[in-house]
Design goal:
The chain has 251 residues and is α+β, with helices and mostly antiparallel strands. It has helices at 7-30, 37-50, 120-138, 146-158; strands spanning 54-55, 69-73, 76-78, 93-102, 105-114, 163-164, 170-172, 179-183, 200-203, 206-208, 214-216, 223-225, 231-233, 236-241, 244-247. It has a five-stranded antiparallel β-sheet, with helices on both faces. Helix 1 packs antiparallel against helix 2 (37-50). The structure holds magnesium ion. Magnesium ion binds at residues 108, 171, 202, 204, 235.
């Protein structure tokens, strides 16, 4: 069931979103060769808990997700499990996904960071993945349709020959981490539900350098590209308002 949010509820999601943004800012400063993904997880959890919030992802799903963040390196698309054994190396890219639950509401965002110096292909992939988010965001206005957002994301990524992951989508968010409706990163202009003020969405393009096809690893969580080429992820939680879309996972 789809529930539109009041201004008061949107303000509360923004409070959770500010914590998420603080975590991503801090992790972006931390990322360097030699650090493990568990180090990043510990830093994130400490910031979230010090803010009086809970990590949305910890214990989520089945098997229960063990981390406070998802940390996905290179060919890993999303849902990588933080581990002391996963030590960052120069030239890798790492996607970090963070969720915080604060005073009854969740917010969710992700960034892909360079570990030291990365090659031009990976840098372009990160840049275009972010650009695909903003292309979709620009279409998130009252009166448009969901497909207008999705098609803009897809067109931006595919214009560079990249693969857009279809099996995982963005989502509504609020009192629950994942609410209706789904927000696919591919679609058709003019199709799907009509966008209304009060809709709060987490849009999260997952863009692959090669094929769009993915596999799930034996840990039951980690999603990776089937051709082992790198993948990038960019996500924000935002609200659709009468005045236009507003990012809620910002400082
Ligand atoms: Mg999400």
């Amino acid at each position: 069931m789809l529930r539109l949010k009041s201004k008061e509820e949107i303000a509360r999601i923004r409070n959770a979103g500010r914590i998420v943004a603080q975590v991503l800012e801090a992790l972006g400063q931390m990322v360097r060769p030699g650090l493990s993904t568990l180090d990043l997880d510990a830093a994130a959890e400490s910031i979230i808990r010090r803010a009086g919030a809970l990590p949305s992802f910890k214990g989520y799903g089945e098997p229960p997700f063990p981390g406070s963040i998802c940390a996905s390196i290179d060919e890993e698309v999303v849902h990588g499990i933080p581990s002391a054994q996963r030590v960052l190396r120069e030239g890798q890219i790492i996607s970090v996904d963070v969720g915080a639950y604060f005073e009854g509401f969740h917010a969710d965002a992700a960034r892909t960071f360079a570990v030291g110096t990365i090659d031009a292909a990976k840098a372009k992939l990160i840049e275009v993945t972010e650009a695909s988010f903003w292309a979709g965001f620009a279409k998130a206005v009252v009166g448009n349709r969901m497909g207008d957002i999705s098609a803009a994301v897809q067109a931006t990524a595919e214009a560079h020959g990249y693969g857009v992951v279809r099996e995982l989508t963005g989502h509504g968010i609020g009192r629950k981490l994942h609410e209706d409706p789904d927000l696919p990163n591919y679609g058709h202009v003019g199709r799907g539900m009509r966008l209304e003020a009060g809709l709060v969405l987490a849009m999260e393009p997952m863009v692959n350098l090669g094929t769009r096809n993915i596999v799930i690893r034996e840990d039951g969580w980690t999603i990776a590209t089937s051709d082992r080429q790198p993948s990038a992820h960019y996500e924000n939680t935002f609200a659709i308002t009468a005045e236009g879309p507003v990012i809620l996972t910002a400082l």
